[in-house]
Structures are given as structure tokens and as C-alpha cells.
Amino acid sequence: MTFQYMDGHRYQLIKRLGAGSYGIVYRARERDPRSGQYVTRAIKVVPVNRGGKSTTVREITMHSKVTGHYNVVGLHRAFQEGSYLYLVMDLLEGGDLRSHIQKRTFSRNNDIIKEVFLQIIDGVEACHNKGVYHRDLKPENIFVSSDLSRVCIGDFGLSTVSTESTSFNTGSLHYMSPECVDCDDELYPYGTVRADTWALGVILLHIVTGFIGWQRATIHDKYFRDFLEKEDSLLGAFPISKELNSIFRRVFTVIPDDALTLSQLRREVRNVKTFYMSEEERRVAPQDH
């Protein structure tokens, strides 16, 4: 659909940026009908005949509730034309967080890590304050400006207004809390605030190290089992500081009521002196795997 126009030539798709389960996101331009000037947008295009319409309608509803906060991608409008739904959003020129993790943009840069992650927390907390719980927080759904000065939460297709959920295995496997992944007992719903906070912990580990600690948060996963059994398992696997390891122990607890709240996590991260081991600490650190 590149270079196609829609809505009476008000919008033109310029370049494909990425694709998800239900739609494709394009870099686009919008012509202001009054001034005639063009502004850059991101537009998500969703075919209405492939099962994605109900999910997209929910995404529009949820995204509309939280639009307006500095750390949430702005949704400007949504409309249907022919057999497609179009979501017109802010475009952050820096792309998604995952691309920067892959490029090692954050490697051993404490100040940038702290600035970026605190903005992520602010965006998530703003959503929670509006009664919207994301359930699919991951680097691919977090977007940054080209100079990393602005960080925004996006993609609300799996979000909910419920503080408890029995929609188990919702989201992305690596980022799911233990109560959500591989469960099916509807008598024990998982908390959606806790699910988002857990995902933030995984994102922080990913930003700092470039890796994820385990495939899934169950005792059947060797690395997660090691984490539960050994206080310093992450210190043996990654060159993180002891103070960061202490934060992870309080985020990745299997007792939800013992986990850090978002405000506590913000305070702990803000007070971190360094996310990394010193060279001397690296030489004497245990090497588990």
C-alpha cells in the first residue's frame, strides 16, 4: 500500500515500518486541510475481514483513554475506508526500543538507561491511572524520539480495564508473570498491574544486558528455576550491579503481594548508582552459565 492515498488525499502512506498480528504500520504524511502543510505520522492499517477488527476496536478504545500523556504514543484519529481501518498516531523518529537494544545504544550508559526507563514507568503508570492495563509491554511496543529524549508506550491491542484477568498466556511469553504463563485455573486470576510491573523488570534487564533472563517464568525453565534457587544467579549470568540484582529479586518474586509497586520501582531505579558491575567485581563474580 506504499504511496497510496486515503481520506480524500489527506493521508499518504510513505514507508512500511513494521507488521503485527493484525496490521501493518507505515510512516505517513498528513496534509493539514487548512494550511496545506504536511506533518509526519504513523498509520496502522488493519484489514477488517481478517479477524482483526474487534481487536482493533478495543485498541482504539483503550488507546483513546490514555492519549494525551507525554509518555504515551498519541492517537489522533481512527477511521474506516473500504475494507481497512486506519489508526493515525504520533511517529517517534527513533523507532522502537528493541532496535536500540540490538544496537547496544544503552551499553554501560547509566544516565541514558535511567532516563529512558523512568519515562517508561511514567507512561505505564499514566495508563494505570486511567484504568488501562497494557498486558503486552515489551521493547517492540515502546517507541523513542531520535535523540532518546522522549519515550512512549504504544500498541494497546491486548490491554484491558480489568485489574484481574483469566485470559492466561496473553502477551509475549518472555515478559509474562508466572501467574499468567501456562495457567488455566480460572479460580486464580492474575493481577494485570502485577503483569505490567513484571514485564517492566524483564525490559530493564533487556536494556541493561541486551538479553532476557529466561524463556518463560516457570519452574520448568532451567534459568528461571536457577533464579528462584540462587540469590546471585543473575550476577553469575550478567555483569549487573548488586543493587540492580536486589531490585530484580523484588520484582521477580513469585509472591505477587511481595512485589515492588510501580512507584517503589521508580524510586529504586532513580536511586541506583550504577546498573553494572565494576571490572574488579566482574573478575570475582560467580559464573553459573
Would you spell out the secondary-structure blueprint of this structure?
Blueprint: E1 5-6, E2 11-19, E3 24-31, E4 38-47, H1 53-66, E5 75-81, E6 84-89, H2 97-102, H3 110-129, E7 142-144, E8 151-153, E9 164-165, E10 190-191, H4 192-209, H5 222-229, H6 233-237, H7 242-251, H8 262-270, H9 279-284
Antiparallel strand pairs: 1-2, 2-3, 3-4, 4-6, 5-6, 7-8, 9-10
Helix pairs in contact: 3-4, 3-8
Would you kindly provide a written description of the structure presented here, covering whatever features stand out?
α3 runs antiparallel to α4 (192-209) and α3 runs antiparallel to α8 (262-270). Helices cover 33% and strands 18% of the residues. The protein is α+β, with helices and mostly antiparallel strands. It has helices spanning 53-66, 97-102, 110-129, 192-209, 222-229, 233-237, 242-251, 262-270, 279-284, and strands at 5-6, 11-19, 24-31, 38-47, 75-81, 84-89, 142-144, 151-153, 164-165, 190-191. A hairpin with a 4-residue loop joins β1 (5-6) and β2 (11-19). The strands form three sheets. Strands 1-2-3-4-6-5 form a six-stranded antiparallel sheet, with helices on one face. A two-stranded antiparallel sheet has the order 7-8. The protein has a two-stranded antiparallel ribbon with strand order 9-10. The relative contact order is 0.10. It has two domains: 5-89, 2-Layer Sandwich (Phosphorylase Kinase, domain 1), CATH 3.30.200; 97-284, Transferase(Phosphotransferase) domain 1 (Transferase(Phosphotransferase), domain 1, Orthogonal Bundle), CATH 1.10.510. The mean pLDDT is 93. The chain contains nine helices and ten strands.
